[in-house]
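note to self: the first set is below, dont mix up w the second
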Amino acid sequence: MELAELLGIKPGVTALIGGGGKTTAMYRLARELRGTVICCTSARILPPSHLPVLAGDSRAAVRQALAAAGRVCLGVPAPEGKLGPPALDLAALPALADYVLVEADGSRGLPVKAHLPHEPVIPDCAGQTILLVGASGFGRPIREAVHRPERYCALSGAAPGERVTPQNLAAALTAEGLGDRVFVNQADTAAALDLAGELAALLPWPVYAGSLQGGKWTCLSSCGGAGISPPA
């Protein structure tokens, strides 16, 4: 089963938030989805090497690129070689493509993210939001594995020197109440999948886990009993 099918990605706008693989997930979904796809961000992302990138605000140019390639990344150049939000308003994008994938968060490369009140920047037009967590954060000190560790501790009741566990992570995610479903990335060992399963048992949303790099994933709770997918 492909990732897009497992996660139930529907036409319209899908936002990806959290840590641990948002950009990888976005570009993987863009490859899988049948139809035209726009990738972009409401924060900052590294530009893709495999998609045309448009920085302007021409709807005609976007339509032309989609007609030629089926997928396009929109974004204005930002510091450090990254792309910022597109010049076109995000609300205008669903009229141009079947699917719009938006990386709506930043985590500075860390596997876990806690959010300040103004975060994440989920577009109002988003129909679904996927929250990603990196399993590599389990067992590491909160101050090392979490972007905004002070906020994480305030949400979960843990101390900065404690380690990330399924229990304090579930407390933080539940307190925030963000996302329609959770994907635990970097779960490429039996031990990591066990920890992801502990997390899933504590959350009220559908939870999936696997390895975006390895192309394997599974459903852990409330998602129809889908099984491990072989590499694409």
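second set (the one i keep forgetting abt)
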Amino acid sequence: SHFSKVLGCRFVVAAPRSTAFAVNDPCEQLCNYLSSTFSWLTYLPGALQRTQSVTKSSQAEWREQRPSVQKHLDTITYKGPQLKIPREAIILVDDIITHGHTSEACSRRLRAETSCQNVVGLFVGHTK
């Protein structure tokens, strides 16, 4: 597969919800399914956790209400296993992408904590 052979993906994680400490069940379940379907993929359950609630970008009335990448980064922590995987990549699963601030923050957090080569986003939908 392109994900494993070309991109070097070996792990899959779910993006956290916007609410502090809330589990993103649908995305966690999808990660579990993907890892059980593809033997080269290891699921890291609950690896990313939101420590402080933020406004959902899709529900913000004004651009100024949307959390910045830095705000997301400040409120997301890595709770997964200690990994040093400089030649491998991680798939980040989220239900929807609005402006990419959450995924960018998750990407930065994962790269900082695991030294992974790349984070590949897998999104079910996109808001306008």
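remember for set 2: Residues 101-114 form the longest helix (14 residues).
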